[in-house]
Write a structure and sequence with these properties.
Elements: E1 2-3, E2 8-15, E3 35-42, E4 55-67, E5 90-91, E6 97-99, E7 105-122, E8 125-140, E9 163-177, E10 202-213, E11 240-251, E12 256-268, E13 291-300
Antiparallel strand pairs: 1-2, 2-3, 3-4, 4-7, 5-6, 7-8, 8-9, 9-10, 10-11, 11-12, 12-13
């Protein structure tokens, strides 16, 4: 909803909720716990003939309390079902999993997300930035069938394994229209639509840098004294992924876009080839090899 002449937009919701980056059409709902969501976004100069008319900033947040399951029947004989632990895996720009939790780790309490964001558009130039932090309560499970009353018993959750993890990520994207169009968060209208005899549409160059970082305690045991028996394994997961990308967008008209992007990601602190297991001191951790990817996309919008 917009108020104050479109200078302030707000949205609030009560939803089923999913893990980070999830889709409720394919993900589970846990314990019938709902997720509270909200977002405030301000464009204070949107109606002014000012160099600041393309400035916008705001923040979004979510809250829920969720308990995951190690597997569907809580037995040691069935492999862990990662779709029921209430926790995400994180993908690189090349759509490869660079972080996943151990099979014994489950969500066990509050999940809070907070994300300030801002953009600025002036002439053909656009800048967009976002920061996100996820605060997740987590525990380790011992497996075994639960007694009457089920979830919450120490026969399921390892005693004193509860931890609150803080993960964070940020990104900055810069774009520029080579053909002189006015940049906007809501899209672009080419000065001339593509036509062999009249024009070649709008051409835009883009660049982005992004960096997700996992809480260091994620990889340590509950006491925080060793890199074994933790919530994630440094032999399979990385602590950080630093990614940059450059691209070229061709807008044939307001409905058709062709994109070409090159991306490179460098991983820090884990997932090196053939390094398993990690020793208690973490001295044999090796970085995962760099990832390079080239993507093309044809987008139709009506």
């Amino acid at each position: 909803m917009a108020i104050l002449g479109d200078r302030l937009n707000y949205a609030f919701g009560l939803v089923n909720g999913v893990s980070d980056g999830g889709n409720i059409s394919t993900g589970p709902e846990f314990n019938s716990r709902k997720e509270f969501t909200g977002r405030l976004f301000a464009t204070p100069f949107v109606n002014d003939a000012s160099v600041l008319s393309g400035l916008g900033f705001g923040a979004a947040a979510t809250y829920t309390d969720v308990s995951g399951e190690r597997n569907l029947n809580f037995t040691d004989t069935t492999a862990a079902d990662s779709t029921r632990n209430g926790l995400p895996s994180y993908l690189s720009d090349g759509q490869n999993t660079f972080f996943r939790y151990n099979s014994a780790a489950v969500a066990d309490g509050a999940r809070i997300r907070f994300s300030p964001q801002a953009y600025y558009y002036v002439g053909p130039l656009g800048i967009l930035a976002e920061y996100a932090q996820v605060i997740q309560d987590i525990s380790l499970t011992t497996g075994g069938s639960p007694p009457a009353g089920g979830v919450g018993s120490n026969t399921i959750f390892t005693p004193n394994s509860g931890k609150t993890l803080h993960h964070q990520a940020w990104n900055v994207t810069v774009s520029y229209f080579l053909t002189g169009e006015l940049a906007s968060f809501r899209g672009v209208k080419p000065i001339e639509s593509f036509d062999f005899d009249k024009g070649w549409g709008a051409w835009e160059v883009v660049g982005r840098y992004s960096e997700p970082t996992l809480d260091a305690d994620t990889f340590k045991n509950p006491a925080g004294t060793a890199f074994t028996g933790g919530y994630a394994d440094l032999s399979a997961s990385a602590k950080r992924a630093r990614s940059w990308a450059v691209g070229l967008n061709w807008y044939l008209n307001t409905n058709v876009r062709v994109a070409l992007n090159y991306l490179e990601t460098r991983f820090d602190g884990g997932a090196g080839n053939g390094i398993t297991p990690i020793n208690a001191a973490g001295t044999n951790v090796q970085d995962r090899p760099d990832e390079r990817a080239l993507f093309t996309r044809l987008q139709l919008a009506f």
